[in-house]
User: What shape does this take?
Amino acid sequence: MNESSTFDPGTLTPGARRILDTAAELFYENGITAVGVDLIAARSGVTKRTLYNRFGSKDTLVASYLSERDRRWRALVMRYVDARTAAAERLLAPFEALREWSSQNPRGCAFINALAELPEPGHPAHRIALEEKRWLRDLFARSAGRAGAEHPGELAARLFCLHEGALAMQATAPGLDGAHIATGLAHDVVRAAV
Amino acid sequence: MNESSTFDPGTLTPGARRILDTAAELFYENGITAVGVDLIAARSGVTKRTLYNRFGSKDTLVASYLSERDRRWRALVMRYVDARTAAAERLLAPFEALREWSSQNPRGCAFINALAELPEPGHPAHRIALEEKRWLRDLFARSAGRAGAEHPGELAARLFCLHEGALAMQATAPGLDGAHIATGLAHDVVRAAV
DNA sequence: TTCTTCGTATACTGACCTGTGAAGTCCTTC
DNA sequence: GAAGGACTTCACAGGTCAGTATACGAAGAA
Assistant: This one.
């Protein structure tokens, strides 16, 4: 089997694939702690034994869930970034990705939610969530540098702040379109900084 | 006893006061679902029977925890707002409050965390968290109107987005000072809008 | 004195939690 | 036809969860 903490999604058995899809939906909709492995196994049409044979522990399953989400999110962002050529537009591309992502994920950011539920820094899910956020910050910083910003680090931090605000607003202001508001702000910030 | 879902902190018995203080610390540090009533009772130096005699259920205790936090946060914000006279400064005052609050609450926003853990809209804690956020948005909207913004609603939404971004960053970017970054952005946004 | 309030102590319920053991079936591949 | 991976069945361990039952003690107020 696989002793690492996450899994290459191409090597998953059909049962493991169903388990991970089911877990992803249940974790995102109901929270990680609130969902037990019995429910995941039952909804996947699989026994609990199979779940443990494939994933080893609930923590590993949680980590796999976040890891796969991370992979999809990065791919989406890079698709938007690579579709642009102008440096300023590449800097703003993650906000276009965010608008698409938010419309399909109404329960907010899975990584923010996971960090809220699993505060122990040693938890694998905690590490994965922080790495995802760091990746985006670094992407902003590289793009800001290439766009010729006078203070790339500060511009990146500002854009990251707007990004996080949009995600948090999905949970705290369900009636407002946080991604739309943050995108407008991001345009102003970039226009002022480059 | 008290059949309502929360409590007037002035009428708490000494035991109830200790329970609520202990619960607040444990919930904030470790998450709500992760903390059991047995631990809260033991740490408060109180039996579980007393906890249930005072609060009736864990859900009510959670609601009381958030309710008291909400009360303290609103008082802090209004202290900063009332210390200012110029309309633009009153509009920005919540960001000053946020900087003080953030420095004392490193685990991020208890309301965002609670919404992540308790997604059911019917949960009393869910309702309290949403009301807290709505209160701040309304405060921004009133202040924006008095400051003479051309689009008070949009300005309020933008400031709220920055506020939420700062709070989310406490969890997702532990090394950065989200409140500082958001405050800088807020100044620029207000300067451009009024 | 009697009643109420606030608290103690201990034991308990029934459900749920993550995780394991042991044995056996199905299916593909070599 | 042998081997091995994927999966099943089912029982069970060892704990923790929220919440309850019962009985008692101390203090203040009427």
Residues 36-38, 48-49, 52, 57-58 of chain A lie near DNA strand C (CB under 10 Å from a C1'). Chain A is about 75% helix and 0% strand. Chain A has a mean pLDDT of 93.
